[in-house]
Amino acid sequence: MSEPLSPGDFEAALRTIGEERYHHRHPFNQRMHEGKLSRRALGSWVANRYYYQTRIPIKDGMILTKSDEVAFRREWVQRIHDHEGEHSRKGGLELWLRLAEAVGLDREPVEAFEHVLPGVRRACDSYVDFVNGHDLLESVAASLTELFAGFIMQTRIAAFEKHYDWVQPGGLDYFKSRTVKAPRDARYGLAFVTQHAETRDDQERCLAALRRKCEILWSLLDAVDRATSRPRLADHALLRDEADGSQLVVLPERAVRIGGSSGEILSLCNGERTGNDIALAMGQRHPEAASVGDDAHEFLTEMAATGALRFDPDPA
Amino acid sequence: MPPRPLNLIAELTYRCPLRCPYCSNPVNYAETRDALDTGAWSRVMREASAMGIVHVGLTGGEPTTRTDLEEIVAAAAEAQLFTHLVTSGLPIDPEGLRAIANAGLRSVQLSIQDALPAESDRVAGTTSFDRKIEIARATRDLGLPLILNVVLHRHNLGRIREIIALARDLDAERLELANTQYHGWALENRGALLPARLQLDAAAEVVREERGKPGPDILYVLPDYYSDRPKPCMGGWGNKNLVVAPDGTVLPCQAASSLPGLEFWRVTEQELAACWSEAPGMNAYRGEAWMPEPCRSCEQRSIDFGGCRCQAFHLTGDASATDPACELAPHHPRVVAARAECDLDQAFRYRGPASN
Q1: For residues B335 and B225, is the Cβ–Cβ distance under 8 A?
Q2: Distance between A250 CA and the closest CA of chain B, angstroms
Q3: Cα A301 to chain center, whole Å?
Q4: Which residues of B touch A235 (CB under 8 A)?
Q5: Over residues B43-60, mean pLDDT
Q6: Least CB-CB distance to A250: which of B55, B174, B212?
Q7: Global pTM?
Q8: pLDDT, chain A, mean
Q9: A307: nearest CA in chain B?
Q10: Structural domains of chain A in order of their starting residue, each with its CATH number
Q11: Would the CB atoms of B82 and A214 count as touching at under 8 Å?
């Protein structure tokens, strides 16, 4: 391995990753900040993102177990208190539930994760798994998306006040609290990482961890984006009947066989229903099959990856 | 029963305004004339669909040199085939592209030789870069998915990042970064094209970095010469891909006519299904019965199908030998030795202009 980067270059490399890959660039966030999300899309995001919020203290608890320095643990444990609350002080999770109520959701189904999409669950769990499987340095490096969170929170507050004035007052308290706490936490995390990443190899591991974290946040929004948009067969896709009664969706370089419930789901993709609508409709049609809604979301995810479907936004 | 083919590679002509030194057409392409007229190609499309084929890649040569391309596309679309144009971006213009899109074209694969215009033109042996960009934009304006294909060699491997940026800028759905495979023309130019291992490693690192960012799917194919495993050439001989050459010959791959002693049939004389199922050449390396050791008992045989028959022939003189790209092959040392043959002074031997 080559020489380590200077602290300045290392920090610049971390910040470049954020600039290029943080989810402020995700189309869903961009539409949110431009005021283009429908009420139900915003609600779906809030309910799904709650699952992410609940994973944060769990991964922070794991990070505590990786350090044998009292000073580090005293600092880091504060994050858990910030999230979960302490004595009479309300934590971030409670503030998020207030946001959920402010966008018109009932608290109990949000707390019970009833709205959580399979893709969101997978993304959030993969973050916990990442921290579980990596060392202290990489785990702290993965948290450095906070470097960019202060900025996105400010954008978000302004966007909500301007475009989503129907959101009840008090709903934005979580964002407001993070504009202060995220930069403070990030400064600590950045100082820790720059101090402890001594070799080039350490630095590369940190950069990779931050890239991975950006991917996780991105895929969370991908899932919400798909579920709140309106799929229909892409214009260039060819739907072709097969001799055995099934159908093929033919695409550049590939073909996907459609039969049984996947054919039924595809027939619901008319450009009017959202992914959530389709999952709901499948659940109503097949009340005997418990996972049919999640299966519909998973099928739409697979089809989205092939380019077979186009997803039009649900208008605000 | 022979397997059901899924993809028709329709080589409409070997004519091409480009002169790339790694062209996939046979080295003696100029001896082949275009034998299929509009009606014959239309029949091929109908018969292909009836056999269960779902894709047609309209390629060449340069398929847009055909004046009846619009009719051929319409016939393929009528036959319920997914129509995919493989083009160099000229001589077609945006108006012509619109006409074929209206006739039923569904996607476009465009070749670019480099992200640097002068280098792209130098490798193509003709001024072409600006027109390619124009066709790329016209493709997206028509709402068609764009697949960008860049053949890699030591002259452009250092500009992978620029190539990826270009693909992003052009809103490509997919970017195929295909290292040159050394058959035919590329074998003639091997010394002038072959990269060093360090270049490949550096390029792979750039691809790894860029893949995480939003943008096109990136496919990066190592050259066989450095992968130590053979590629699953054409998904197996006579297995998934059916090639119809400009003279009507039905082949398992674009280069199979360079193998001596194999009898292939022509759609001008037989039905397409018979050419696929019964021609002796199509059955010569179908399945696993033909395989020598170490392939015959190798667990990888159902994954790589023993590699590439043309490469085996051109490097060993025996088309049924194990592909020397495989590290288990008796002739693998020839591939290892070739890695050192990179010749910085060797000039390109360009494909000449077609004399059709």
Answers
A1: yes
A2: 6
A3: 15
A4: 143
A5: 97
A6: B55
A7: 0.81
A8: 94
A9: B173
A10: 7-229 (1.20.910.10), 234-313 (1.10.10.1150)
A11: no
